[in-house]
Amino acid sequence: xxxxxxxxxxxxxxxxxxxxxxxxxxxxxxxxxxxxxxxxxxxxxxxxxxxxxxxxxxxxxxxxxxxxxxxxxxxxxxxxxxxxxxxxxxxxxxxxxxxxxxxxxxxxxxxxxxxxxxxxxxxxxxxxxxxxxxxxxxxxxxxxxxxxxxxxxxxxxxxxxxxxxxxxxxxxxxxxxxxxxxxxxxxxxxxxxxxxxxxxxxxxxxxxxxxxxxxxxxxxxxxxxxxxxxxxxxxxxxxxxxxxxxxxxxxxxxxxxxxxxxxxxxxxxxxxxxxxxxxxxxxxxxxxxxxxxxxxxxxxxxxxxxxxxxxxxxxxxxxxxxxxxxxxxxxxxxxxxxxxxxxxxxxxxxxxxxxxxxxxxxxxxxxxxxxxxxxxxxxxxxxxxxxxxxxxxxxxxxxxxxxxxxxxxxxxxxxxxxxxxxxxxxxxxxxxxxxxxxxxxxxxxxxxxxxxxxxxxxxxxxxxxxxxxxxxxxxxxxxxxxxxxxxxxxxxxxxxxxxxxxxxxxxxxxxxxxxxxxxxxxxxxxxxxxxxxxxxxxxxxxxxxxxxxxxxxxxxxxxxx
Length: 561
Description:
Blueprint: H1 2-80, H2 83-106, H3 111-132, H4 142-246, H5 250-264, E1 268-275, E2 282-288, H6 303-307, E3 311-313, E4 333-340, E5 343-352, H7 355-363, H8 365-393, H9 403-420, E6 424-431, H10 434-441, H11 443-460, E7 466-471, E8 474-480, H12 484-499, E9 503-505, E10 508-510, E11 515-522, H13 529-545, E12 551-553
Parallel strand pairs: 11-12
Antiparallel strand pairs: 1-2, 1-5, 3-4, 4-5, 6-8, 6-11, 7-8, 9-10
Helix pairs in contact: 1-2, 1-4, 2-3, 3-4, 4-5, 4-8, 5-8, 10-11, 11-12
C-alpha cells in the first residue's frame, strides 16, 4: 500500500511539474510575442520618423535648389533678356511656394520648425511678387533669395540634427529589438529544453514502468500458470487418492496408480516396480507408455533404490546408468523410491523423451512424491488388511480357513444354493489314529501331519471350494453346486492323495497316513448349517466304525441309525 501511495505521489508530482513547465513555455511564448510586437512597433515608428525627417530634408533640398534656380534664371534673363528664363524663374518661385506649403504640413508637429517654415512661405511669396513685375531694368531680388536660402539652411541644419537623433533612436530600437528577440528566443529555447527534459524523463520513466509492468505481467502469467498447474495437480491427486482408496487388492491398486501416473506425467512413459517377498527380486507390476524396464535383481541394480533418494539420470547431471534395462538405456529418466513406515516397497521409473518432459516432471515432483506416498500407504494398508484378514479367518498351523470362517461361509453358500436352487456338499474329514501318532512321534510330527493333510486338501479342491480346519485333526470342505456322485469322487481323490502323503520332521520321514470322510448334501440331508454338519459328522463316524480310510455318504446310512 505504501509503495502504491508513493508511486501515486510521484506520478502526481511528475504531472504537476509537466503542467508547470508547459504553462511556463506558453507564458514565455506570450511574453516574447508581446515584447517582439512592442519592439517592432517602436522600430516601425522610429523608421517612420526617420523617413519623415528624410522627406523634410528632401523637400528642403528641393527648396534650396529652387531658390538657386530662381537666382540663376533671373540672372540669365537680365543678361540675355530671354523671357523663357524669366518664366522658368517664375515657375521655380511658384514651386517654392508649393514646397513651403508642403513643408508647413510636414513640420506641423515641430513648433520650432513651424516658425521657420512660416518665414520661408513669406519669403517665397515675396519672391513670387518680385518676379511678377520683374523686367530687364529691375534689380535682382537678392535679399529675398538670400533670406529664403538662409531659412532653408537653418531648417536643414535643424532637420539634420533631428535626423541624427531619430536615426540613433532607430538604431537603439533595432538593438533593443534584436536583443529582446535573442533573449526571448534563448528563454524560449531554455524553457523548451526544460520541457523536453521533463518529457524525456517522463518517457524514460514510462518506459521503465512499462518494462516493470511487462515483467510483472510475465511473472503474473507464470504464477497463474503455476497455480493452474497446481490446481490440476491437486485435482489429479484428489482423484487418485479417492480411486486408490476404492481398490480391494494390490493388483487393482497398481493398475490404478499406473493410470493416474500417466495423467500426472503426460508425454512420459514408466514402470511401477515392487520388491517381492524375498526382497531379492523387483517386479514390474504395472506400466504406461513404452518402457524398457523388466523384472530385475538384485534391487541394487537401480541407483534410486541404492541411494534411497529420487535420482535423475540426464546428460550433464549424472552419467551413471542403472542396470535394470532390457536394452539400451535411455538418455533421461528418473527413479523414485517408494517407501512406507520406513520400509522400501519398490521404485517408480519415469522415462522422459525430451527436455520439456524433464521440466514437466520436475515441476510436478512434489505431486509425484505425494501420489507415491499415497500409493505406498495404500499398499501397506492392503497388505496389513490381508495379513489381519488371514489371521482372523485362517488357521495359523495349516493355512486353511478356520472354523469361524467355515460357519460364515456355510451360511452364505446355503443362501446362494437356495436362491439358485443348487446343491451343496459338506465333507467332514478326520485323520485316523492321530492321537496315537501324535503321542508316539511328538507334537512336531503331529503338526507336520496336519500341515501335509492341509496341503493335500488345497491341491485336491476347486477354486470355489472352501477347505477349513474344524478343530484338532478334523477338517471340513464345502463343495458348492456339485452332485452326490461328484462329491463322492472328490472324497475318493482326497483319500488316494492322503495315502501317498509323506512328511518330514528333521531327519525323520512319516507316511502311511489315512483319513475318514463323511459326506452330507443340501437339501436332501438338511437345510440348515447345524443339520448338514451333524449329518456329515454322523457319516464320518460311520466311516470310522466301518474300518476307517473310506468315505461315507449320509443318505446311504440306514434310517435305523
